[in-house]
Amino acid sequence: MNFKLLLAAGISGFALTLAATAAAQTADTGADDAEAIKTAAEIVVQAQIGFRNRSEDTEPKLVYDTDYFQRFEPLTAGDALKRVPSVTFLSDVIESDGARLRGLDPGYTQILINGEKVPGSNADRSFFLDRIPAELISRVEIVRSSSARRTGDAVAGTLNIVLRDGYELDGGYVRGGALRFRNDKVVPSVGAVYGGAIGESRILLGANVQGRYNPKLKTSLRYSDSPENNPNYATDDFVNREDQTDTRDGMDYAFNATWGLNTGGTDVELSAFYVRNDRKESERSFEYDDPTAVTGSVRGTPAGNLLTDNANVNDIQQDNYSLAGKLKQEWALGKTSLKLGFARFIDRQDETEFEVDFDRAAPRFTGDLTETHIDDRELSLSLDHQFDIGANADIVIGGFLQNKDRDTDIRTIRQRFNLPASVHGWNQFSENPTGFARQFDPSAPEPGSVNRVEEDRRDAFALIEGKSGAFAWEAGLRYESTRVRIEDQTVAPALATQRNDYDILLPSASLKIDVTPSDRITLSAARTNRRPRLDYISPARLLAELGDNDLQGNPDLRAETAWGGDAGYEHRIGSTGVVGINFFYRNITNLIELANTGEEGSEGSGTFVLQPRNTGDGNVYGVEFDLSTDLRFIGMKDTGIFGNFSYLESDIDDEFGSRRFNGQSKYVFNVGFIQNLPSYGAAFGATYRKQGGAFDRTVGEEVTTNYGGDLEIFVEKRFGDSVTVRAVGSNLLDGHKDEVFNKFTTIEDQTDRIFDEYEIESERAGPVFQLMARVAF
């Protein structure tokens, strides 16, 4: 605690010292650099290689324009971020949804769209980046440390997805093509973007329709014990094998628009984006009592191997939209900025699971229906004012208001009955368990599944920034006040309404030193936070949720907090290249971990009621290296290389001992090249990505995850000044996702390594090929 107070005092003192120094200086840093408007042909026909930008902001920030990604034709923002430092995913193969900056859980990373927070369907408050088509993106920014300008929900850092606006494009282009998958399925991809002037204002309109498809194949082998207890487990303890096809098929529809007017000292902008995801996830699973046999008979017959047949279908419709208005006014007393935004995420899912169990005297049919409806709305208002305190420095003061309302309604219903004894094989019901489905009764809520969360935030901040010679700096304080109200319809009336209030003070400071015109050092320190998971703050008790243990919600949870720092060095290579290295550290306290209440669980002796509580702490640290340059220094100016490597470490203690933060890979790297052939109007390139293994441990389950390498290759041909055609192959090594599950029924069993089940699962989806053309007009 003394260290934290000392650090806060040091940051504040640093700010006051810089303010006093700044007042005597004369350099002017108040003006914003205007970005040049590109023509549509410049975006469509890339005659030059794209490199990582060198940000001039004081805070440590990496900037990647769309030029850096476009030639590999990423489908989503998540696909684009696979090529930047320290971003990992624990997604299914050929998918990139929950970004894990520095390997940490997605809830530790702040996701912004055009600098503003957006809601998502996930209970950990994270936003899946595969919701944003890459074609709408202007650039992505990785902000490594926090600033008082932004909300402090950025323990791992911030990913800001900046969409195109009217001041970036003059003209338009259309894009069209298709993607081909392992099973010869072809899906379309089309889009169009236009930007131009309307009188003194400018507009941009963009639309995209993207087919989404993922034909995964999974195999699971299950055992009653593990190799750590029995070296012969593969033969002695075999239980069953599951073969599964898991196909995700859908369409994404996206639209964004901006209107802007800049007249002297007044800057007005209105913007909107909308994304709809329509998809169906279909799983068909067969369990066998043999490691290799695939017969269709049931146990008890001469060739009997089939144990269960399961069909799971989830119809998903998600709508995500945002509306924003911004006004900036320069006047005699400085610059005033006002922002008003509304964002909404609607998630509707209807999931059915039908199973026939043949491993019994009379085959049994089970049918489940789960209806999910989540509606998350955020209304925000921010106001800040910047005024000079000398010729080379300014102070910014401001406030932020956000009202968040989240309604969750999840209801389930089950059917179960024995089938006639004559039904003894999969061919008896048209090769699908759905043949036995009956009309479902009205669904009903389960504990914790119907609730409303109202979260109101009131923030105030102040910062001072400026430049003096080779030094640029920023230091500030942000005060965040949160009021939470939870209404749960599944608990007793006396517990149905709960309230929780908490306040956090977040200091931050950054220093940039231009040692030479080519060499730069950045130093940053900040306090950040992570708010509790929304499903943890319900007062409901979920029976047998963690193995055989119950989970009791905790409305009194407070945010986790972290003190951290970044130290980086960056060197410019020629006029375009850059190489950098960064060291980071985070000390996270008030960690939300599951604690044993000591109360016996609903499953009887040996089980307990567990509850999330603010307890313990952990450390996260590592080093990040990135390189982006051409090879003109060896006479190869048309050859660009890029690469990054991040070594990620952490330590945390839980009920079972020491471990890394759940899901954090030990490393992630990406290397590649682009070769331009100017005389042929062509280019080609390749990129290879690999991330290290990750381990998760919670009560009742431990998971180890490993991925194979991901190789992508593109070939491009340009026609004149307005047409580009690209062929891209991704997942060319057919990389596998391999998981090992240790499952336990009680805490005592997990401590004593007495397994309920040991499972090995492998998943693959095959290479993906796409052909894409763009035409500028």
Automatic annotation (TrEMBL):
<dbReference type="InterPro" id="IPR012910">
    <property type="entry name" value="Plug_dom"/>
</dbReference>
<keyword id="KW-0732">Signal</keyword>
<keyword id="KW-0472">Membrane</keyword>
<feature type="domain" description="TonB-dependent receptor plug">
    <location>
        <begin position="63"/>
        <end position="158"/>
    </location>
</feature>
<feature type="domain" description="TonB-dependent receptor-like beta-barrel">
    <location>
        <begin position="373"/>
        <end position="707"/>
    </location>
</feature>
<protein>
    <submittedName>
        <fullName>TonB-dependent receptor</fullName>
    </submittedName>
</protein>
<feature type="region of interest" description="Disordered">
    <location>
        <begin position="219"/>
        <end position="238"/>
    </location>
</feature>
<keyword id="KW-0798">TonB box</keyword>
<dbReference type="GO" id="GO:0009279">
    <property type="term" value="C:cell outer membrane"/>
</dbReference>
<dbReference type="InterPro" id="IPR000531">
    <property type="entry name" value="Beta-barrel_TonB"/>
</dbReference>
<feature type="signal peptide">
    <location>
        <begin position="1"/>
        <end position="22"/>
    </location>
</feature>
<feature type="compositionally biased region" description="Polar residues">
    <location>
        <begin position="221"/>
        <end position="233"/>
    </location>
</feature>
<dbReference type="InterPro" id="IPR036942">
    <property type="entry name" value="Beta-barrel_TonB_sf"/>
</dbReference>
<keyword id="KW-0675">Receptor</keyword>
<dbReference type="Pfam" id="PF07715">
    <property type="entry name" value="Plug"/>
</dbReference>
<comment type="similarity">
    <text>Belongs to the TonB-dependent receptor family.</text>
</comment>
<keyword id="KW-0998">Cell outer membrane</keyword>
<dbReference type="InterPro" id="IPR037066">
    <property type="entry name" value="Plug_dom_sf"/>
</dbReference>
<dbReference type="Pfam" id="PF00593">
    <property type="entry name" value="TonB_dep_Rec_b-barrel"/>
</dbReference>
